[in-house]
Amino acid sequence: MTESLVEIDQKYVWHPFTQEHTAPPPLPVASALGAKLFLEDGREILDMACSWWVNVHGHSHPKIAAALAKQAATLEHVIFAGFTHEPAARLAESIIKAMPRPLSRVFYSDNGSTAVEVALKMAWQYWRNTGVTNRRLFLAMQGGYHGDTFGAMAVGRTSGYYGPFDELLCEVVHLPFAPTWIGDNACERREAMALARIDDVLERHGHEAAAFLAEPLVQGASGMNMCRPEFLRAVCERMQAHSIPVILDEVMTGFGRTGTMFAMEQAQVVPDLVCLSKGISGGFLPLAATVASQRIYEAFLSDSFYTAFAHGHSFTANPLGCAAGLASLKLFEEEHTLERIARITESNLAWLAEVAKLPGVTRPRALGSIAAVTLGNEPSDYHAEIGAAVKAKCFARGLLIRPMGNVVYLMPPACISPEDLKRAQDGLTEVLRETAHLYAS
Ligand SMILES: Cc1ncc(COP(=O)(O)O)c(C=O)c1O
Q1: What distance in Å separates the CA atoms of residue 74 and residue 59, rounded to the nearest whole number?
Q2: Quick one: how many helices (H) and strands (E) in the chain?
Q3: Which of 50, 130, 377, 404 has the most crowded Cβ, counting Cβ within 10 A?
Q4: Ligand 1, from 213, 232, 251, 285: best to mutate by most atoms within 8 Å of Cβ?
Q5: Ligand 1 centroid vs 120 CA: distance in angstroms?
Q6: Mutate which of 55, 117, 145, 407 for ligand 1 pocket (most atoms within 8 A of beta carbon)
Q7: CA-CA distances (angstroms) from residue 194 to 149, 224, 242, 383?
Q8: Average pLDDT for residues 398-422, to the nearest whole number?
Q9: Residue 394: is its pLDDT beyond 80?
Q10: What is the mean pLDDT of residues 332-336?
């Protein structure tokens, strides 16, 4: 008897972020198109989480698929030290043109965590290359998440995901974040308190800080916590006043997710380093980039290899990923992607105004294609029972929604139709009504 796909998977595969002992068998996906996943058993599921926040325009977009096929038949991969190729050079040019000066150099890698590692290492070596050795500390935002490699875990330590590794992580000082939401009237007070704390930390540690890192405007993995652009700007200005390089982790927020190409535009912050991944390839292939300012780049130039950035990955600047990235950027113009996202925001704001009236539904918030609510008033951990219940009930309605603890969010691809978006919003509203006994007091 031939084994089924699930049987083979269960025998040989180890899945991410999964307790393999108790998790139900994974669901075989046969194909995907636009906002929909098609399961092998014939079910259709609306992808309201953009498949871990990578998808931008929709699944299996024919133009990205065609660009990839063409590239695969021309040049699939080549070592990127000592060589270059058209997709990498052109994608770098497009990214730099979409960003403010003095951001001027693109260093490629292959996932969000490595984009962050690269930024941290660049900031660290920048100081050593310029003869400064006492800047040994990283500053990061409380609740920030930056990936699962060691540097990224250290700066993201307070996101709550890294218990077993705690004693291995390097020293990071975490600064208070000031979240806000629709109808919040204590935001300015919260921000003032956070900024006063930050001033205090900078007074004591500013001279020893190698860099400051933050997710701009939205902290994704710690629960779609949003802040005002003014807050982000005030924090970054303080860092820059202490000559501390600012790293913005736009791995989740980049490529339209917050309604502008990059979230930093809304805060009018010009960082020294930017981390990109996920949407960079339209969600088709693993690709990442760390964008550096001219000042950072120039600090690595000398006649000696010892000041070079001696870091690289086998698949750096993979031509297929870069070709997908170029095709995705073209779609932003051809399909007016940012306008599509603005329509999603508008629809989500109207939906949130209603759903926030349900008992126990708190902190409604929306930005770009993201809409989120918190269930109950207490923070909860990632695996809270309520999240699992909401997820299962949504799935039964054909909706892929992945709550984080008691935070439930929608994040559809830009191509979602108004009807499908409404179906997702209405479905989630129903599920929140059905599960209210779990969170509403
Ligand atoms: C803000 C942010 N940074 C970094 C990462 C890590 O990216 P990856 O999972 O590709 O390593 C993530 C992943 O969710 C993220 O949201």
Answers
A1: 24
A2: 15, 16
A3: 50
A4: 251
A5: 14
A6: 145
A7: 28, 19, 17, 28
A8: 97
A9: yes
A10: 98
Atom of ligand 1 nearest to the CA of 278: 10
Q: How far is CA 57 from the centre of its chain?
A: 16
Cα three-residue angle 168-174-177, rounded to 5 degrees: 140
Confidence (pLDDT) at 161: 86
Taking the CA of residue 149 as reference, the ligand 1 atom at the shortest distance is 11
Mean pLDDT of 134-141: 97
pLDDT number for residue 382: 63
Cβ of residue 221 lying under 6 Å from some atom of ligand 1: yes
CA 6 and chain centroid, separation: 30
Reported confidence tier of residue 384, pLDDT bands at 50, 70, 90: confident
How far does the centroid of ligand 1 lie from the alpha carbon of residue 305, in Å? 31
Q: What is the pLDDT of residue 380?
A: 67
Tally the C-alpha atoms within 13 A of residue 227's C-alpha that lie toward its C-beta.
Answer: 30
281 lines ligand 1 (CB under 6 A): no
Closest CA to 126 of 316, 308, 312: 308
- Residue 89: which region, alpha, beta or left (left: phi > 0; alpha: psi -120 to 50)? alpha
Position 381 scores a pLDDT of 66
155 CA → ligand 1 middle, Å:
12
With a 6 Å cutoff on the Cβ, whether 279 touches ligand 1 is no
In this structure, the number of other CB atoms found within 10 A of the CB of residue 168 comes to 10
Q: In the numeric block, which tokens belong to residue 432?
A: 């929140």
How far does residue 251's CA lie from ligand 1's centre (Å)? 6
Does residue 319 have a pLDDT over 80?
yes
Asked if residue 162 lies in contact with residue 153, where contact means CB atoms within 8 angstroms, the answer is: yes
User: 269 by DSSP, 3-state: which?
Assistant: coil
Q: Is 283 in the pocket of ligand 1 (CB under 6 A)?
A: no
Give the position, in ligand 1's atom list, of the atom nearest the Cα of 288: 10
Mean pLDDT across the chain, nearest whole number? 97
Pocket probe for ligand 1: among 146, 253, 274, 404, the residue whose CB has the most ligand atoms within 8 Å is: 146
Q: Which two tokens stand for residue 375?
A: 């269930």
Q: Categorize the per-residue pLDDT at 159 as very low, low, confident or very high, splitting at 50, 70 and 90.
A: confident
Contact 147, 157 (CB under 8 A): no
Q: What is the pLDDT of residue 215?
A: 98
The torsion angles phi and psi of 280, rounded to 5 degrees, stand at: -60, -35
Between the CA of 260 and the centroid of ligand 1 the distance, in Å, is 19
Of 113, 435, 65, nearest in space to 281 by CA: 65
Helix (H, G, I), strand (E, B) or coil at 212: strand
